[in-house]
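Work through this:
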Amino acid sequence: MATATHQSTWDARIARARELASSSPAARDLLTFYAALAEHQRALAAGAGDPQTFDVDRAVEAIPDFLAWLRRTGPCELGASVDVDGVASALSRRLNDARSLPPEGGSHTNPKCVASGFSRQDAGGAEHQIEDPTSLFVIESLLQAFAEQFVASNPAAPAPESTPMRCPRCAGLPVAAVLREAGHGAKRFLLCALCLDEWECLRIVCPACGEQDFDRLPVYTAEQFAHVRIDACDRCQRYIKTIDLTKDGLAVPCVDDIASVSLDLWAREQGYTRLKSNVLGF
């Protein structure tokens, strides 16, 4: 059942990306490329082997084929100058770190430290930082496919005692927030950039610094994206994009995030920095 559900989530992302590409001229190229990326990630996940383990070697072995796909499918500047050995070394080092942690939830590999070190804004350990955007894209694309497969097939983590600002499943940073209907209102969830799992979060809090003063947490909207908004913080000057499913129940958060890239451009012009860029680097 977990495998079927996992497959259907990829199908939903691909379909949504193609749908929005036909109606969003400003983001058409990004959405078309993302649909192709999601198809490749779906194939990687389907061939990932035992979903109960985080297969380090298989993820590293997938790099050459992914780069070949990228050169065929992506923009011409992508994939042309990637250091394959450097990417493989960095990915292998980070994933092998995960092997050193105790197992969780009956799994054979603990993915808790997989996320740290590959964020564009979150430095992690300096020895794990990768500055080249294309190398980051390759690593994050591969990790996303394998990490989601792992999380979807393993028991959920225990409920945290307090609202965490990192994913309780894999320690990844949130790439977006999601509002879902709950009772007579809506609950806020954070969407992990790595494993794409969600966890509940307070409605009024900055996921970057924990600020809870309403007056320091401005919200910005645009008419063309009625279900998407910018939740900013004037304390740390970070922002996170929120996808409101109570306004558009057909939205797929990680896809609608890409479709509304113009909101990111506007937020950055105002001096805000995104908490965590999406897989395409926006």
Observations:
- The chain has two domains: 2-152, 174-274.
- The longest strand covers residues 174-182.
- Residues 101-128 have pLDDT under 50 and may be disordered.
- The beta strands are 174-182, 185-192, 198-201, 219-222, 225-232, 238-244, 273-274.
